[in-house]
Amino acid sequence: MTKANIIERISGGTGLTKLETEAVVNGFIKIVKASLLDGERVDLRGFGSFSVQHRAARTARNPRTNQPVHVPSTYIPFFKPSRQFRKDVDKAITADLNR
């Protein structure tokens, strides 16, 4: 599913125009990004949480040459789904597989 698909579905379900819906979706994305850039955690009850995690520096291996390669430390955005969301996904996929 793409951002355009999300906008279309929300627009159809709310009665908002696609332009209004796109502005809301873009605003949501902008706020989540800004919060993560400020080091804040974003919690959406029943859905999950967005946070920033630190990955420590490490030594990896180049598979082609087998030489060690230094990988610097980084900060990455991370999403953790809520317990209920995980259960819902598992239940829906399991039901589809058992058809």
Features:
99 residues, alpha+beta, HU Protein, Chain A, 2 domains, two-stranded antiparallel ribbon, 5 strands, 27% strand
Written account of the structure:
The model has no long low-confidence stretch (mean pLDDT 95). A hairpin with a 3-residue loop joins strand 1 and strand 2. The chain has helices at residues 3-14, 18-37, 83-97; strands spanning 42-44, 48-55, 58-61, 68-71, 74-81. The longest helix is centred in the N-terminal third of the chain and has 20 residues, at 18-37. It has two domains: 1-40; 41-92, HU Protein, Chain A (Irregular). 47% of the residues lie in helices and 27% in strands. The radius of gyration is 19 Å and the shape is extended.
Put simply, the count of helices is: 3
How much is the radius of gyration in Å?
Answer: 19 Å
Main beta-sheet annotation: 3 strands, antiparallel
Are there runs of 5+ residues with pLDDT below 50, and where?
A: none
Strand and helix map with partners:
Elements (H helix, E strand, L loop, with lengths): L2 H12 L3 H20 L4 E3 L3 E8 L2 E4 L6 E4 L2 E8 L1 H15 L2
Antiparallel strand pairs: 1-2, 2-5, 3-4
Helix pairs in contact: 1-2
Short description:
The chain has 99 residues and is α+β, with helices and mostly antiparallel strands.
